[in-house]
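[[Per-residue structure]]
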Amino acid sequence: MCEEDCKPLGFLLGLPFMLLAFAFTLVGIVLWIITAPLACCCPCLICFTVLAKVALTLIKAPVSVMRWFTRKVPC
């Protein structure tokens, strides 16, 4: 039996997809830098807030992709 956290095959299979998700992270960082100050200035406080939350999701994409791949690959 192997440990649940030790799945090198899932890491290796997910690596190309994590690199693609890293490109989404760069887009998310730029989007967050633009929308975070605008969310404070917008009177309705919903339009830019939603975009800032999407940007944070894009920033967390590589971690989510790697966790998903390591969970799907058996030991």
In short: Residues 8-41 form the longest helix (34 residues). DSSP finds three helices and no strands in the chain. The radius of gyration is 17 Å.
